[in-house]
Input
Amino acid sequence: MTTASIKDVARLAGVSIATVSRCINSPEQVRDTTREKVQEAIRQTGYSPNTLARNFRRGKTQVIMVVLPSVGDPFFTGVMSGIRAVSDESGYSLLINETQFNTMTEDEIGAMVVSKLADGIILLASMSPFGTRVLSAESRRALPIVIGCEAISSELDAFPSVHIDNVAAAREATEYLLSQGHRKIAFISGQPDSLLTREREEGYRHAMKEAGIDAGNDCIASGGLTLGGAIEATRVLLSRKDPPSAIFCANDEMAMGCMHAIKANGLSVPRDISVMGFDDTRYAKIMDPPLTTIYQPAEEIGERVMYRLLHEIEEERSHGSKPEIVPHKLIIRRSVARPSG
Amino acid sequence: MTTASIKDVARLAGVSIATVSRCINSPEQVRDTTREKVQEAIRQTGYSPNTLARNFRRGKTQVIMVVLPSVGDPFFTGVMSGIRAVSDESGYSLLINETQFNTMTEDEIGAMVVSKLADGIILLASMSPFGTRVLSAESRRALPIVIGCEAISSELDAFPSVHIDNVAAAREATEYLLSQGHRKIAFISGQPDSLLTREREEGYRHAMKEAGIDAGNDCIASGGLTLGGAIEATRVLLSRKDPPSAIFCANDEMAMGCMHAIKANGLSVPRDISVMGFDDTRYAKIMDPPLTTIYQPAEEIGERVMYRLLHEIEEERSHGSKPEIVPHKLIIRRSVARPSG
DNA sequence: GTGTATAATGTAAACGTTTACATAAATCAT
DNA sequence: ATGATTTATGTAAACGTTTACATTATACAC
Output
């Protein structure tokens, strides 16, 4: 009971396999009467083209691989939804790879594309991509890759990318905290090596320095970008002899954990401690109090990344293109107030 | 500058392509000296097997398609993470399809499997799958499909599935509300046709009926399983002349929206209105107040679904297997209290 | 060293499409 | 009706693997 192939259809319809193929791929080339015969045969056999064979023949998979730290994070969900909107309309499927626990090395990822598992690859805030083992310098440059949400360091800037200006955004956020009179501002970052938050930390440090405040290492805690990590980090921060009056979290997810930990400690937000997030996920506005944060146009980032990738795939590769910077925005809600002390 | 093929490697190593292939797939079959030659040639050419050709030849993609309403929902994120844990270790990749806005019809989904885009398919709380157009009755039964999170209606019970007992769980939740003295209990459901919540609604109705309370249609509002939908639904519920003293939401995501809307209305949870969720996502415990809800073992469901699917793919198809029921649990936190009135 | 058993390699077909090219059929002007 | 032109169909090669089978090389016993 093996599935019907194009040959079966051809035989049943009394035509050649080429004609059947044309009926499917460029129906206007075949005469009406023949087309009907073939369609009838297709119906009878229950034929559906074997994608494996087709992909092989065409040398394309119509699949895009998306590599990202965590699909669960509501910000990435937003980006994904932008990507999906474009991929849907252009006939691509999405292969998702979470690097959450580093189950997949960059080399493996590179191998997937080289070995044609996907036609292109979107790197969302991943670690520095691609060791040199798998990909020669040339082939690396020839690979359809677009980076989203995070600029990649120096030597690899041949890859196109789209993201906000993370440094500026984090500086703005910090400056807002400063403008409200805060001096003791803590920062909860991602993993130490996380590209995603490195620039935000840089913006934070920059603003603090400019304000003449020494943001020593005990102002910074790592929350691993997760809810639980942030709860832990906040506990540590609060147990310090001189606790902060404001905490700036590198993403909203951590801000949620942070706020929870503060309340669980019997303190109030923003009366005792102010909290600032980053991303403006769908949860920001329903938090209690609603979260003051930095808005990133998640869907737009996703859309532009995907459009960009399509361009890379379908047109010629663009060398050393400048990153696309999309605008961010400080969203003032109610989780930040002037310090009480 | 086209990528190297197995031929190039063979030529460079001075062996036949068969030997190269064996070096990759069953190295023990080839002599050490030859293997080294070949490996050297592979290194020099930068060869990596063309997955397209390999898949074609082998008739397998090593890809599983997962169809689910929304990757953004933290519950599904949990299920996905269970699926991923198993798929990773067994060498499968995941193709994700959100049906969120019904961009993809069931027929299209069926077509994907028939046309070999994926080796198997996991349906997470999707609508009733598969029209009859694409799939004949026999091939439908022959398809490696496993259903997660929701039993599928009557005639299709040939598909294996794993999920909790939704009816019983929802009944328990409602009974808990009743035991706290609530009589005016509202229910916020998903879309009217959503399989995911239909059974939960049934459990709710059942418990209400058993308690001798008439749960008329104005006790039930649709929140579309989304945050925003639940906010809207709650507003409607609160504006009734005789508002409920407790609201049971068909998932935690909606409970978050619900709680927000209640607070935004100047009321307090649980003093004025109690809120009950369903899923026990990672946010449940950090809500303010922490959410009383039904725990579903999301990761376990994902793992078992995936194991089940692997079995379907690798062993013979199982006809009419009974659904696997995993345990749920009522988690009592602080969003439910005795009614004040 | 011969013959036999075993291990290693080579040869060639097959998988199901798409497509360049060749051929046959239909259309049209005369 | 004939030939010229256009349109529709058929033929066959190609894509890069894997693998059954045939062949050759190696090891081993005598």
